[in-house]
Design brief:
By secondary structure, this protein is mostly beta strands. The chain has a single domain, classed as Sandwich (Immunoglobulin-like), CATH 2.60.40.10. Strands 6, 7, 8, 10 and 11 form a 5-stranded mixed beta sheet that branches. A 4-stranded antiparallel beta sheet has the order 3-9-5-4, covered by helices on one side. A two-stranded antiparallel ribbon has the order 1-2. A hairpin with a 2-residue loop joins strand 1 and strand 2. The chain is elongated. The two termini are 26 Å apart. The N terminus is likely disordered. Keywords: Signal.
Length: 136
């Protein structure tokens, strides 16, 4: 598992593209990155989220079976949609990519939640929450 986390972090670190929202007067940056192939699971309604904290940045990658973020790149059986990112219950952003980097969080503990929605803005009942600590 350690090698997989390092691999995810290295792939995420070389990606480009940026979005720059603000949070509590500080710049918070969500950077989309290409997702690597995640091992598929047989269970329905599975939401797999992996994350790594490195140098104050949070590298996040998600996988939902039969789910697509892109209108023209999904199979007929795929649900098309997006993720809603919530940080500490005071920041919310729609994410349209499976992998991304959160930059600019203040040092300390943070609760991060991802919830899947379909293209009609209906929650799919798939939610993952995790806690991270940004060192000072």
């Amino acid at each position: 598992m350690g090698k997989a986390i390092i691999g995810i972090a290295m792939i995420l670190m070389v990606a480009n593209g940026m979005v720059q929202p603000a949070l509590a007067g500080h710049e918070l940056e969500i950077e989309p990155v290409p997702a690597m192939q995640v091992e598929q699971q047989d269970t329905e309604n599975t939401f797999d989220v992996k994350h790594v904290v490195n140098d104050g940045n949070v590298y996040v990658e998600s996988y939902i079976p039969d789910f697509s973020f892109y209108a023209n790149q999904h199979q007929y059986k795929d649900t098309q949609g997006y993720l809603k990112l919530r940080i500490n219950d005071d920041y919310e952003k729609d994410i349209h990519q499976a992998a991304f980097i959160i930059k600019g969080l203040d040092p300390g503990d943070h609760a991060i939640e991802l919830e899947a929605y379909d293209e009609s803005d209906r929650a799919l009942g798939l939610k993952e929450t995790f806690s991270i600590t940004i060192p000072s």
